[in-house]
Every structure is written in structure tokens, then in C-alpha cells.
């Protein structure tokens, strides 16, 4: 009788065989114009669901990979896109209308949309695995020898799905997931010689966390603040700030190590959490499950949060794709809200160099596909030539918030990223810039349906114009009605134009929705319609 361990070993071996087949035919499936491939898109957020619940509307983040529909501009590509709940037809039509030079009907015929009709908190990949008939439909819809699967992030669930469908997964082997955690990132930085803040390895209890924090403080007696991070936090929501400045009485010069550890343990309930309504009681319960690290908070009058994105091909080449300056918010400024492309000229080439070093280290460990590295940039004081210190803080081995804006730009303009300058040029040679967000959220946007958004886009001419290669591309449209939340990428031919286009979208949405909200306010309801005479 075959044991569970034998089954797992068999699946892992089959998965690796499928990955080898992707390496063998990679040059064919990646041809830019004539790739004859079937692409199965599984946009499952296979992460800790309790952490994901901190993100409003996270179930709709399955829409983030809809930029993949732009691959249908290749007339020989077919695409299968699976979601938990059916996507609104208007959303699909919107993306297909963006395709340059391809008849809408031709692209639609090569797209198969499937759904599990399951809005539970389980990861999408798990929902698919629990539905044998849906798996059969997937197998029957593709040509296995010409297919591969892409996902948001790779876990054993995506590995099992790859094996069940019988096609390779263009993503990280789940056995390498550790290198995308906070602790694993720090190990990679150390191995690759990348500057990064002083900190700890993984700890799994409040007591161990206090010991690690005390050790860090003793190594850096002048430290003012520390950051505590859950190993698998998402978009900064798993971070907390520990302010040491009110704790002078237990500083390294004032108290013993034992006293310092005890007092830090008692002070954890005063942590400043990034996630709204987070408490130490809940946060500390996650530490044994996920692990946590503590690291030095980098102080500075002028700080930024740039990032570099790259990919590792199945044949092992490391390619740098883009750099960004991230837009952060939240109580302590550590939650990802959006980004600007490209990163500042003062450090974008240095980001590329550091990103390539990290990519080579990951490739040597067997990683493939997307990787992103977040940094903190602190401007050196008393310098006139804008010298910045770059410190790496995190590796993301998944498609992050900067993935879909850049890929949208690339597919829409058929342009290229220039490594010598860190700039992007369209097919017509124009420099391209954008501002993007996943978090344009206002209460008066609630109630907007996808069709309403299309009306606003058309009325205010907010759409992407293929002739000028400028305008806005929208995503996360499914979040609008319930959460008042929207994603967008505003593309311009200069940083100023991209910013202006972005602001014009926000202004138009505000004008349209605030007017409607006023109509339904209690004050408005008490007013007689215009033209009516009040009876005294």
C-alpha cells in the first residue's frame, strides 16, 4: 500500500520532470511574436489567510494577473484564466479592447474563463484541487506539450496543481520558499554581500523576540527604533515598530541584559502595528506559526523605498526588468500603496547591480521566475550631490505590486527596458513613465459597478490612448462596489505627465461619486426638488 510520504515524493519527482520540460522548450514558448502556447493562469493568493484578511478586498486580488490577457495579442497564444468567482464581463471586455492590432472576437475565442464559484477564504489553488470535474475541464482545454502554468505565488498547492493538470509551472519550486521570507532574505543578502540592516534570524516566541531585540540593542546602543516583522507578512501589514526612546532606563549603559529582556517583553503590548486594529495578543499568537525577525529601523531625514524587479529564466539567466520608487503609507509608513517608474536616477543603476547579484544567488539555488527586492534609501547628510545609502530589506519571490504595472506598460507599448539607463522606451522610441497604485480607496467610491466605471472613463476620456501611448489602465475593478477600492496605472511621456494623468483620474472619480453621495445624504433627502415651492 502506497503511503502518504510515497505519494508526496512521487508528486515532487513528477513536478521536477515537468519543470525540466519547461527548460527544454523555453525558447519556443517565449518567442515574442510567434509563440504557439497555451497559458494557464492561476492567480491564487496561496498565503496565510489570517494575514491576507488584513487587506481589504483581498479576494479580488485574483484580478491582479489580468494583465496576462494582453498576451493574447499574439494570435497563436491561447489562455485559460481561473478565478474563485466569475469575473464581470465588462472587466474582460475592457482588457481585450486594449489589445493592439487584434480583433476583439479573435482574442475572445482564444480565452477560456473558468471559476470555482467558491468565495471562501481557501486559496484558489486548493479550491481547484477539490473539484475533479474542473480539473478535467482544464486538462481537456489545453495542449499539454505546448502549455505552462503561471501563478501569483508558488506553494505546494501550485506544485500539486501543476502535477494534476500535467503541465510545468513557470514559478519557484516550493522547496525554495524560505528564500522569500524575511529571515531567508537576510541570509541571501549576507551571502551575496548586499548591505542590509542589522537584525536577527527567525524567532518563534515572545521571549525569543525579546532576547533578539536586547541583543540588537546591545550591538547598536544608539539605536532609536526597531522593526518587528512576521516572516510571511504581506505588503507591510505584518510589521510593527518598537520605539526605544522612552526606554532609556533599560538601555545598554543603564541596565543588565536580563532586566532589558524582561522589560522589552512587558513593552511589546505598546508596539505600533501597521495593520489596523492589530493587537499584541493576536500578533504574538502568529509568531509560533510564522516566525518573526527584529531588525534596526533606519533613521534619516530623507528616506525612500526603492525596489528592483528581475526574473530568472528556466535556463538560469538573470534579467533585470525594472526599478521603482515605492509609495508607502500606514501608521509607520511601511504599507505598500503604489509605485512610480522608474526609480530615481541617483540610484537606479545601483539597484540594478545589487538586484543582479541577488538574482545570481537565487539562480544558483535553483529559483526561477519573478523576484523583487525592496530597499531603504537614506540620503547622506551634508552632501550636495544626492548620495544615497541603499540597504536591502526584503525579497519577494512572487508577482508583487510592481509586477502588473510594468508588464502592462511592456505589453501595451511593445517597448523595451534599457539597462544602460534604467529607462523604458516604447516601440516608437518614447521615454515612458508611470504612477501606479493598488490602493485608491475612498468610501464614496463604494457602490460603483464596473459598468459605472466604464461610463466615467469614457465621459472624462481617462482611457489609455494607443496613438499617444498615454493614459490610464485600471485593475481591481471587482473591489469597487463593496470596498470603494481600485487599482490603476497612469502612463505618461514624462514623470510630470504621469502624475497629472493620475491626478485627473482621482479628480474625475471624486467629482462623479461625491455628487451622487450628496444626493443620498440625509440633508439632501429633506430638501424639496429644485423648482418646488415650500409651503410656509
Instruction: State the secondary-structure class.
Output: alpha+beta
What is the arithmetic mean of pLDDT? 89
Give the % helix.
25-40%
Major β-sheet profile: 9 strands, antiparallel
- List low-confidence stretches: 519-536
Can you tell me the overall shape? Answer: globular
Short key terms for the protein model shown above:
globular, alpha+beta, 536 residues, disordered C terminus, nine-stranded antiparallel beta sheet, four-stranded parallel beta sheet, Alpha-Beta Plaits
Quick summary of this structure?
The protein has 536 residues and is of the alpha+beta class. The protein has helices spanning 4-29, 49-52, 89-97, 104-109, 124-129, 132-141, 156-165, 182-192, 206-219, 257-267, 280-290, 348-364, 403-413, 450-460, 480-483, 495-519, 522-526; strands spanning 38-42, 78-83, 111-115, 147-151, 225-230, 239-243, 272-273, 292-296, 303-304, 306-312, 318-329, 335-341, 369-379, 388-396, 416-418, 423-425, 433-441, 471-475, 485-492. Strands 9, 10, 11, 12, 13, 14, 17, 18 and 19 form a nine-stranded antiparallel beta sheet that branches. A four-stranded parallel beta sheet has the order 3-2-1-4. Strands 7-6-5-8 form a four-stranded antiparallel beta sheet.
Amino acid at each position: 500500500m502506497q503511503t502518504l510520504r510515497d505519494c508526496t515524493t512521487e508528486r515532487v519527482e513528477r513536478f521536477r520532470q515537468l519543470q525540466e520540460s519547461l527548460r527544454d522548450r523555453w525558447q519556443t514558448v517565449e518567442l515574442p511574436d510567434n509563440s504557439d502556447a497555451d497559458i494557464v493562469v492561476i492567480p491564487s493568493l496561496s498565503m496565510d489567510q489570517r494575514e491576507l484578511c488584513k487587506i481589504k478586498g483581498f479576494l479580488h486580488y485574483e484580478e491582479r494577473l489580468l494583465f496576462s490577457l494582453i498576451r493574447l495579442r499574439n494570435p497563436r497564444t491561447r489562455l485559460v484564466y481561473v478565478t474563485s468567482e466569475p469575473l464581470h464581463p465588462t472587466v474582460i471586455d475592457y482588457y481585450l479592447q486594449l489589445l493592439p492590432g487584434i480583433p476583439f472576437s479573435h482574442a475572445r475565442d482564444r480565452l477560456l474563463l473558468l471559476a470555482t464559484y467558491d468565495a471562501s477564504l481557501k486559496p484558489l489553488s486548493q479550491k481547484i484541487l477539490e473539484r475533479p470535474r474542473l480539473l478535467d475541464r482544464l486538462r481537456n482545454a489545453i495542449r499539454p506539450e505546448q502549455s505552462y502554468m503561471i501563478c501569483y505565488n508558488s506553494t505546494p498547492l501550485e506544485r500539486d496543481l501543476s502535477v494534476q493538470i500535467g503541465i510545468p509551472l513557470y514559478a519557484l519550486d516550493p522547496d525554495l520558499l524560505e528564500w522569500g521570507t524575511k529571515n531567508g532574505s537576510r541570509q541571501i543578502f549576507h551571502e551575496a554581500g548586499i548591505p542590509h540592516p542589522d537584525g536577527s534570524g527567525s524567532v518563534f516566541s515572545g521571549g525569543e523576540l525579546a532576547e533578539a531585540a536586547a541583543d540588537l540593542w546591545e550591538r547598536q546602543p544608539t539605536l532609536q527604533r526597531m522593526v518587528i516583522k512576521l516572516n510571511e507578512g504581506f505588503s507591510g501589514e505584518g510589521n510593527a515598530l518598537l520605539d526605544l526612546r522612552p526606554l532609556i532606563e533599560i538601555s545598554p549603559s543603564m541596565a543588565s541584559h536580563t532586566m532589558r529582556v524582561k522589560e522589552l517583553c512587558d513593552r511589546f503590548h505598546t508596539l505600533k502595528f501597521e495593520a489596523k486594529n492589530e493587537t499584541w495578543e493576536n500578533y504574538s499568537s502568529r509568531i509560533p506559526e510564522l516566525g518573526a525577525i527584529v531588525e534596526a529601523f533606519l533613521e534619516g531625514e530623507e528616506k525612500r523605498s526603492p525596489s528592483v524587479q528581475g526574473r530568472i529564466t528556466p535556463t538560469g539567466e538573470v534579467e533585470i526588468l525594472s526599478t521603482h520608487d515605492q509609495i508607502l503609507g500606514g501608521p509607520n509608513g511601511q504599507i505598500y500603496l503604489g509605485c512610480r517608474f522608474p526609480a530615481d536616477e541617483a540610484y537606479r543603476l545601483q539597484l540594478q547591480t545589487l538586484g543582479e547579484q541577488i538574482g545570481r544567488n537565487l539562480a544558483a539555488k535553483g529559483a526561477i521566475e519573478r523576484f523583487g527586492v525592496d530597499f531603504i534609501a537614506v540620503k547622506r547628510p551634508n552632501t550636495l550631490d544626492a548620495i544615497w545609502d541603499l540597504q536591502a530589506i526584503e525579497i519577494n519571490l512572487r508577482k508583487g505590486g510592481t509586477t502588473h504595472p510594468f508588464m502592462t506598460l511592456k505589453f501595451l507599448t511593445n517597448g523595451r527596458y534599457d539597462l544602460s539607463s534604467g529607462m523604458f522606451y516604447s516601440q516608437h522610441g518614447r521615454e515612458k513613465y508611470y504612477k501606479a497604485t493598488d490602493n485608491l480607496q475612498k468610501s464614496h467610491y463604494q457602490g460603483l459597478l464596473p459598468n459605472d466605471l466604464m461610463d466615467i472613463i469614457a465621459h472624462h476620456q481617462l482611457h489609455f490612448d494607443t496613438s499617444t501611448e498615454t493614459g490610464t489602465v485600471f485593475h481591481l475593478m471587482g473591489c469597487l462596489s463593496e470596498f470603494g477600492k481600485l487599482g490603476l496605472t497612469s502612463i505618461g511621456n514624462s514623470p510630470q505627465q504621469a502624475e497629472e494623468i493620475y491626478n485627473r483620474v482621482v479628480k474625475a472619480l471624486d467629482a462623479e461619486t461625491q455628487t451622487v453621495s450628496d444626493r443620498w445624504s440625509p440633508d439632501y433627502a429633506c430638501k424639496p426638488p429644485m423648482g418646488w415651492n415650500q409651503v410656509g
